[in-house]
């Protein structure tokens, strides 16, 4: 019989909340996934990119429905040519996040007006456009910096400046309320 709360078994999620251990596990998992992508013939620095994988999925669906020939990254194009689907990591991220939120009872639907929905929608579209212009989302940007890509360093600087400006705008709005 357990008499002290500290003697109870700790679950995996308890250990993953330790920043160093959680970061190490996530880093190892990302490196393993990247290695598997290389084994599958994936190009460098394409391991996990929200912007690029979303673009490939949307372009694949559009190509399938309309018979068009929109761009797919070589890794996704090779997968489609082999008779499979393009990279579906964005679907995995959405399903995983929703599953975790439901599991830990943190899933809530926020209600807003049409203006707030429009602002978030336009913001998401602009994020995708600028991420693709920069050549990557922040995940892929970090991978490219790891490969020594100088353009990615400038992209990181631009990302930091953009976040700083966004924080300043948000703070001004908060002070006004």
TrEMBL record:
Keywords: Membrane, Transmembrane, Transmembrane helix
A Pfam family matched in the record: Sulf_transp
Membrane spanning stretches: 20-40, 79-104, 116-141, 147-167
Domain of life: Archaea
UniProt cross-references to InterPro entries, sorted A to Z: Sulf_transp_TsuA/YedE
Record's protein name: Sulphur transport domain-containing protein
Lineage: Archaea, Methanobacteriati, Methanobacteriota, Stenosarchaea group, Methanomicrobia
